[in-house]
Specification:
This protein is an alpha+beta fold. The chain is built from 5 helices and 8 strands.
């Protein structure tokens, strides 16, 4: 796992079986989260998407990493893999403010059937201004236009209301373990 943050999430109904393995790996219990899913449709694509951009280089990936670190109180710059922008099916996304500063980010992994959303981050100073929702709608719309039909995200209690505003519904409760 190196210096990167790490977590294991499993369905609550099998969590007791996984607990010894998580402990053996040096992971500690970190509560629960909700797996949420959303049917993608073209209405997502109609949302405002100005100032939303796909990460295409190391500088953009560094901006995503900085936003994730600021949003979740993490240290270090090795938050995401350095070659994410070259990975098949994986994309980083940024939302910029009027001055061009990155204010919200997310990582998406797509295959022909499913879109996974990760590391959705808006630092505390920029929250409650619609940045996360604007970025999320634009990215969901992008993938809907590419033909994907379903998206999923592992939501914290704080993040779940944002996901509900764009159509996500709870699918499963998860138990979470984090790196010490």
């Amino acid at each position: 796992l190196g210096r990167r943050p790490a977590r294991i999430t499993v369905a609550v109904d099998v969590a007791d079986e996984v607990a010894p393995v998580a402990a053996e790996l040096g992971l500690i219990p970190a509560g629960e989260a909700t797996l949420m899913s959303c049917a993608l449709d073209y209405a997502h694509a109609e949302a405002p998407s100005g100032r939303v951009e796909r990460v295409v280089d190391a500088a953009g990936l560094e901006e995503v990493s900085e936003l994730v670190a600021a949003a979740f109180g993490l240290d270090g710059s090795e938050i995401l893999n350095g070659d994410l922008y070259d990975a098949e099916g994986a994309d980083g996304w940024l939302l910029r403010d009027e001055e061009g500063h990155a204010v919200s980010s997310l990582v998406a992994t797509a295959d022909p059937d499913l879109l996974g959303l990760w590391s959705i981050a808006t630092p505390p100073a920029a929250q409650r201004r619609g940045h996360g929702q604007r970025l999320l709608r634009a990215v969901l719309g992008h993938y809907a236009l590419e033909g994907l039909e379903t998206a999923c995200v592992i939501a914290t209690e704080q993040g779940a209301p944002l996901y509900r505003t764009v159509g996500f519904e709870p699918a499963e409760r998860l138990r979470v373990w984090m790196k010490r």
